## 1
Amino acid sequence: MKKKRTIPHTYVIVFFIIVLSAAATWFVPGGEFDRETIEIKDGTEREIIVKDSFHYVENQPQTWEIFSAFFKGFVDKADIIVFILMIGGAFWIMNESKAIDVGIFTFLRKTEKIEHLKLFKFLGINNVIITLIMLMFSIFGAVFGMSEETIAFIIIFVPLAISMGYDSIVGVSMCFVAAGLGFAGAILNPFTIGIAQGLSGIPLFSGIEYRLFAWVVINIIGIAFILRYANKIKKYPKLSPVFDDDNKNWRKKEHIDVGQLKYYTPVSAWVTYAMISVILIVVSVFQFQTTLTVGNSSTTIPIIPILAGLFVILGPLMLKKSVHFFILNLLLFTILFLIIGVMGYSWYVMEIATLFFGMGLAAGIASNKSANKITALFIEGAKDISSAALVVGLAGGIIIVLQEGKIIDTLLYSVSQSMKTVGKFGSISIMYLIQTVINVIIPSGSAKAALTMPIMAPFSDLIGISRQATVMAFQLGDGFTNMITPTSGVLIGVLGVAKIPYEKWVKWITPFMIILIILGLLLLIPTVTMDLSGF
């Protein structure tokens, strides 16, 4: 009997890439660019490459460092690792209350009531739901660069997708892939477009008209691909590459009959409501006005007092129904404050993790859980998600090996030299290819902008390509491969939370990546052949 081929574990695949990276440091010459710190906007400093400063240095072949890379990767990705553990613990506390089960049950019941309407019957109510959710996250990705934040939403959308008859891949696509589409079609993303244009010396967020067109096209193609896949899985669930994984990790988990669930509201829920209301009112006094920044424009409004007022009003209405609906209300306002924090106060993973941690504690107290029980639930949740945190640290080791081997700058310099004699379209295509390949090695958009734009922008002047087109090549090359590269701590974290093996994800998303990369190349053609506004 033929032995069934065993697919390598995600850890094995990532470690193998570390070994390959270490092997490359033995053959690729070492090289470095000189760097300097400049001010790019409102006193913000950024380290950039000095033009024509590349020089070869002695390479640093990596040997035993492939083992220490795991430790250093943990240190380098510590913020995302702790973020994952805190999110996992917080949501485990919330899950114990069965509030999310109630929310999904209520949501599906509401959709059934409007499914018979002609418009929804024609379009398909589930298609409408998936499209609207994906558009929302795509806007988040395009406007303020949502990326790490999507890890927190996986725990919501994977169970929702499976309850709707799909699989965990559709659940991941609703938030993570959608945010990735928006990130690639960035309209006002300050972490990519803002930095790249600032370093290129062109007006911030100029050329927005064509980028908006590109965002629309990318989302039409991207959402259509996901809907086509989702409908295929709805019809034939066993065609899902993660069918067995979902059965083990999600479908066969202990579920309760939500319809028979006892709805109740303990006194502790009212106490929790009162405490949060007081805190929000106090915060509203000290943070009465908030300046929300979208791209290069901003507006100042009393958004925190408005949300505080809504919470005070909605709280009792939810509590009269059940503690489950109050906890769902907590989740809703947590997400709203997350958006305000990112747009108004430049929050990152530390603040967001703290916010969700507070939500988890509030959910536990509202459910009348003891301090020991809440602690036990948090530890259990962190333990359940620890494999995702571990692989993020391992994946971070890939970049550590390449950096310490001193070959990243050499790779960048080598490919940049290939653009000198291929014409405008050839040059913009090579720029796009370079950005796409580099993104596999350096998934950070802001880091890659600081690394490549000081080289690409002046070079585009020499070959007659607008700097805006160069920024567009960076933007598209920076976006798509975030959804497949094993060096992305966010992707590895998302897959870990969703319990999707990396190798199965790669097999599924590769055709999608090919489509998106070709689409990106097509969208670059008008930037060198047409007279576009801002270009």
## 2
Amino acid sequence: MSSPEAPGPSRTSRFGRFFWKDPNTQFLLLAAAAGILGALGAVAFRLLTAALTRFLIHAGDIVRGAESLPIWGRLLWPTVGGLCGGFLSVWFVREKGPSGISQMIESVTLARRPVRLRTALGRVASSIAVISTGGSEGREGPIVQLGAALASSVSRHLRVSPERVRILTACGMAAGIAGAYNTPIAATLFVLEVVVGSFSMTLFGPAVVSAVTSTVVVRFLLGDEPVYHVAPFRPQSIREVVPFIVIGLLAGPASALFMRALQEAKKLFKATRLPVPAAMALGGLIVGALGIFLPEVWGNGFEGTDRILRGNPTLGFVALLFVGKIVATSSTIGSGGVGGVFTPTLMVGATVGAMVARVTHLVVPTLEAPVGGYALLGMGGLMAGVTRAPLLAMIMIFELTQNTAVLLPMMLVSVLAVTSARVWEEDSIYVQSLRSAGIVWEKTPEATMLSSLRVSEIMRTDVVPVPRTLPLPEILNAFLRTRALYLYVVDEKGTLLGVIDLHDIKETFRAEEVSSVVIAEDLVREIPFVTPDEPLTSVNEKLWFRDLGQLPVVESPQTRRFLGIVTRRDLLGAFDREVLQHNRLLARVRTVSADGGEVDYFELPEKHQLVEVPLPRSLEGRTMSESAMRQRLGVSVLAIRRWSDGGLERRFVPGPEDRFQSGDLLVVLGPDDAIARLRAS
């Protein structure tokens, strides 16, 4: 009698093994890890800033600390903080281009510049030195960059795909915003509405996980209190719609004034040609001078905003705060400060709402028009005008105060603010920063991605032009030897004269009586050309307008020196790779024949990829034959990229006995699902 069979694994254990090995589950766990890292970074930043303020100025509240200082102290501390912040920025921040949230938008949307941890830590240190001593910049910029840098570093260390590195970087941003302001919904909306520019479901889930995880950690460590405390606000009369409309309409030009002040301040400080530490010290001195009369403008704006929301300031006082906070923030950021403008924007908006409340009291005394409630609407209006994200503004103000009654008027104010802001300034503050750094930015992420690509990135340089004196028989032979439809004609200096189209010379095939006298220069015709720095959108227009298959690339319109060509297929390959993320047309192959060679694309079968994948840890130390990737996973290893101890790169086709090493990059070909299994193994 046979013995009973051992019981197999239960359904629960099988599900558990599947659950933890599922790539999507693993990715969500990484998003949660990004949330934890972002939360810890935000908590550390807030605690260090408060501790340094207490140590230097002997006050937990930067505004109270400023009020307790003598005049010389109010001038000294922001100047010293700016000087120290400038040195920290010079020592640790070596990158050029946009900084803060603008850089994060560039990194996530275009994936052109990685978010480096050293740079993020340098910006955090610089911002802590500035904010702790009174400098007027927001804490969200360095906190967001720190969260993104931590998430990006971990994802790169774990060798996840480049696309998922971008998603996790965005998750780190969401975690930073949630950790800085205790606002998980607004943090998710910030990433989707401001950073990505679309409500992509690919990003939505991981961003939610990161934001919620970050908020839970921050509330566990610091408590669950709303950031701003304000008396309950509820509209009491239909007549209040009028001042709500006024707040929305004023928020637009106020946000434009704020953005222009920042731009002009950057130009003025740049014109001084001072070293960064000296410029930031000068910016701190200006803030210190303002603090003699308006200590409320010190710091990131939280304390000043809280006073407006809780107090009952006069019209003249809030008008002075409106001007003073704009000047203080422009001086700090314009001189080289690396912080954000989120919290200063909220304070400027609070002054706008408070001014409308005071004027409403004077004009219609029967309306209650609470200063704190109207200040909230002004905060959301300025945020919407500066970021051009009305939904973010609505939810942000609600989460900052946990007051549901503010949502209805906030909807009206935020939409009007965005509409009126566009009359004065076309772009948001972040897009302005990107454009000023020379980055092309369009209305959709796809258009931005293509506009950021240049001809030099996809042009072919292996096309040999023909001299202008080439006789007709040799021209015909050149067409017969290759599959080319065009021959590019140049003079003795390499200047492009034009193109010979195969279809234009068909009639000359049998005209033997003229073949001896006709040369290439006689057959050329003009053709549009492009330069290496032109965006691919320009190539697309020129190709389709003339229904051409390719265009010549010249050095410049003046010299017209021939450099190569760009083809319609190259353009489609770039679109497929950068926008559709399919990598269908990525494989270039060279056909070698007796009389030379030519480059063409090899179009992969449907649902196949030719990609470069980091070697999974499970394959380290195995040989090609032992790994049996073709049999187990259905992928073929075409090549290996390996670096020696001296940093030299070696590329080779592996044999059966070649052994994989840690750090190898595999060039593999296989179906989409097989590539996914390889990445997860």
